[in-house]
Amino acid sequence: MQRPPINLPSMSRRSRRVIIALVSIAVLFVLWFNFVGIYVDYLWFSEVGFQAVFTTQLLSRIVLFLITGVLAGLIVFGAIVLAYRSRPVFVPTDEIDPLAPYRIAISGRPKLITIGISAIVGVVCGLSAQANWDTVQLWLNGTSFGTTDAQFGNDVGFYVFDLPLYELVLGWLFVIIAVAFFVVLIVQYLYGGIRTTGPGRKITSAASLQLSLLIGAFVLVKAVQYWFDRYALLFSNRSTVFTGASYTDVNAVLPAKLILMCIAAICAVGFFVGAFLRSVKLPAVALALLVLSGVLIGGAWPLILQSVRVTPNAITLEKEYIERNIAATRSAYGIGDDKVTYVPYNPPNTGSPASLVASNASVPNARLLDPTLLSPTWIQQQQNKNFYSFTSQLAVDRYTVNGETEDYIVAVREVDISKLAENQQNWINEHLVYTHGDGFVAAPASQVSGASTQVEGGAQGTGFPTYAVSDLANKGQGPIPVQEPFTRVYYGQLGADYSIVGAEPGQDGREYDTDSPGYTYTGSGGVDVGNLFKRLVFATQYGEPNFLFSTELNGASKIMYNRDPVERVEKAAPFLTTDTKPYPAVVDGRIVWIVDGYTTAANYPYAQNVSLNTATNSSQVAQGATAQVDERVSYIRNSVKATVDAYDGTVKLYGVDDTDPILKAWEGVFPDLIIPGDQASDDLKAHFRYPQDLFEVQRSLLAKYQVSDGTEFYQSSGFWQVPNDPTVDGTAASAAQPPYYLQLSLPGEETPSFQLTSALTGFQRQFMGGYISASSDPGNYGKITVLRFPGATTTPGPVQVQQVLRNNQDVSRNLTLIGLQNVRFGNLLTLPLDNGLLYIEPVYAQAQAAGGQSYPQLNLVLVWYGSRVGLGNSIETALENAAGSAVEPVPGDGGDGGGTSVPPTTDDGTGAPSTTPQVPANAEQALVEVQSALEEVKSAQTGGSFAEVGAAQDRLNTALSNYLNLVGAGTTPDGSAPTTEATETTEATTAAPTTTG
Length: 997
Fold this sequence. Notes:
Blueprint: H1 13-48, H2 51-85, H3 100-108, H4 110-130, H5 133-141, H6 156-190, H7 205-232, H8 247-276, H9 281-310, H10 314-317, H11 319-332, E1 340-344, H12 356-359, H13 375-382, E2 388-389, E3 395-401, E4 404-412, E5 414-415, H14 427-433, E6 437-438, E7 440-444, E8 448-454, E9 460-465, E10 488-489, E11 498-501, E12 527-528, H15 532-542, H16 546-549, E13 558-561, H17 565-572, E14 577-578, E15 583-587, E16 590-601, E17 610-611, H18 612-615, H19 619-622, E18 632-633, E19 635-645, E20 651-655, H20 661-669, E21 675-676, H21 682-685, H22 692-705, H23 710-715, E22 720-721, E23 740-744, E24 753-762, E25 768-775, E26 784-788, H24 798-807, H25 809-818, E27 823-825, E28 829-833, E29 836-848, E30 854-865, E31 868-872, H26 875-884, E32 906-907, E33 913-914, H27 923-943, H28 946-968, H29 980-990
Parallel strand pairs: 1-26, 20-21
Antiparallel strand pairs: 2-5, 3-4, 4-7, 6-10, 8-9, 11-13, 12-13, 14-16, 15-16, 16-19, 17-18, 19-20, 22-24, 23-24, 24-25, 25-26, 27-29, 28-29, 29-30, 30-31, 32-33
Helix pairs in contact: 1-2, 1-15, 2-4, 2-5, 2-6, 5-6, 5-20, 6-7, 7-8, 8-9, 27-28, 27-29
């Protein structure tokens, strides 16, 4: 018996009108807000002259939306129509049919519901697909790399440009077929084509045919996917040692993919034949075969081969594939033999420290000012007004003044509305008055001046930068002149999200300016916002009604937005990954921001897969610097140098790598967007720096990929590592030491050049392994030099040297005088010289300013050379003190000056000199004394007096110095090398926390 149909409740005409009105208003609001977002973007692209970037993206998205949406909608529409037309006329049932009301409702409006469902599916699929416009454009404009992969012999361009699109198309086919399958399933179930109860057959022939055909199509697409899955093996992460197809992938997974492809094709045929024969047996057998073969061939067999054959013999079987990975990684990241020069470096550590100043030009020009620490100092001394400020981390660049090129710490004085006092905080002040910063500030990185502070031993600590360009009074004057009116900074990193500028003729200006109380912007930057429509647009964009009601806006008003230089470059060139450290420079009399842009790819075959965020996570990020995006890449090039004018916001993109295929592809997408690099002015080229983020990625790879042999690579015996930054405390102490920009002449070179440098230590050791430098000079830009230390070297790395510096008795006493809570250690610079390795570290006192604000002041300069420690108010003085403290070489140092000088007397904390301690006979005895002294320090810290702690600390300092003398010389007194156990123990000991008195 069948229950009579129940009509759905009807609404009154008034209710329908209300619902239609509300829905219409909601739709209009959605459309308006979407229009505002698109229109505001269009106005911005028009302002910067990149309309083609906007229109190309928009048209690409629209076309992709239409193609995918229409295709998905038509397939679903066809599936619904076929299922509806083939529905059974009569459905036998012994029960009340609960689906009857829904069938009646749908049957009353079949066209509307069919079209509506198809349209919804099409819109959803189209919106999802349009986000992949860049994949389609790269496929259309991709070029050859000129390099083939080692497994299939395909050009790398196939993997970078073509394969992503094929995978995208296959993925969307899977989705669309699956949606069509479920739509047919629902319609047939709703109309009784598929039943779970009742007499007779539970599925009609029409329903079986339609579902079988769809499953067959799904399996056929899967067969095609198996073919392309073979290529994806070249990005496999099966091995924990390297990225790329391993022995198991090539000898088990690859054949399995081909077998599964054939089986899937046979299964698809089985579904098609079974559909027309009205038989479910053949499709069922085919499906069972596909599932079983997938489990056995695709899953079990590779696991068995990996466990039984590969794991016990990986060092031999994986050698070929590791070497493929080495070659591909070097090529993909620009660290091959054509880019990197390896130089053996085994410094003798000979000569007096005092002689280094005259013998090497790098030493007197070494950077003392730490850009990571000095922002508070610059704010105190150069802020000028409360609403001006500087970025939290300053930048390093170089300038030639009076014929001498040296490093400068540089920044621009930006407006920062977060600094406004409470009575200054209102919409007009924040967006119409305080619109811009003012002035470029630069200080020689190797010079300081200011009030002196007495340091024990006669050294004088001085505190403040010597600002070469430091005051608004020298606009257009001084060693780094900026022309008027370009000293004003409207585009920077600290300004408000938007500012409104401009005034009509005869109207007084309202913008605050240090030269005049009412300045009016005269540049080309900004978007006209003088008419009512545009005011309404921006009032909607920023949720600010003052755009409509304020009489301060006039016909000449312009709005500046997207003012951050990095944001402007990313919008102008959406295919670039930008460097996180833009920097200002004075170029041809104007202040410009220079932003490095990277082209990246994730599908370079066999190249190591790297996380940009992880590889660039240095202590600077831990201290507040911007982190790189969390993106995984296997290819990167610094192909674009972008500039953003600080006054009018003009964006220029210079192509600096003509060999980059990815950049060539994007030039095909956006013709005339990239300016050839040779059109950059000489003044601009002189300020191009080797980018830090790229360097950090490359050094993390060079720590491993300086090894060429596959067997040695598998053993990891020749690896290096990036040392932790020993100058910081807290959570930042576990982060990597950042690279440093320096004017440096490498061993064998006479003239210093602007280099980005980094020390590398041995794998899980603290002794030096290598030293990397990348040149930024225009004539030698991009040259990477790697100094290799001997494998058995005991030359201490940054962490060990920092421990020695802190434990030095003279240094400890001076730090105590400063007040340990006020001490800030600056960047520990590593300078490889012809005669040895020199470390230089500035020490700052955190001075207290009026109002409780604190800022660093340079107090000491520490040096380490040939195991001698010196301190003073300058590098020269510190080196002289290091030379003056030298005594007879420690027994066993071979007379080569490699041993640490040991003062003849020590201070026990009471002021009375003690007798000279006995020098241990060998490294093992010295290590025992270090461990004993360390236990005494721990005991004294637990229950001893301050004097006892100081005396125990002094004994630890002496014991540690004695041990480092012996291992630092590379031999023990009897001429043998120090044991591995002793070497490892001293690393653990030097890393232990100690008290500096």
